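W.,

You were right to be curious about this one. When I first looked at the sequence I had no strong expectations either way, so I just let the prediction run and decided to look at it fresh. Below is the sequence, 58 residues in total, followed by the output.
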Amino acid sequence: MQKKLVKSRTDRKICGVCGGIAEYINLDPTVVRILWIIFAFCGVGILAYIACAFVMPD
């Protein structure tokens, strides 16, 4: 069975993007959120999160 990258329905803080990515790669959602914050300080994280929130299916 092939995994699909979808937003999380159970582990949401804003839109479920980080929770969905964490489920997809079998990682703790907190680690994904911390990495996303680091990318946000670099300038690409906020735009990437917004894009993922619109592109990733529920």
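Here's what jumped out at me. The CA atoms of residues 5 and 24 lie 6 Å apart. And, maybe more interesting for your project: The chain has a mean pLDDT of 88.

Coffee later to discuss?

I.
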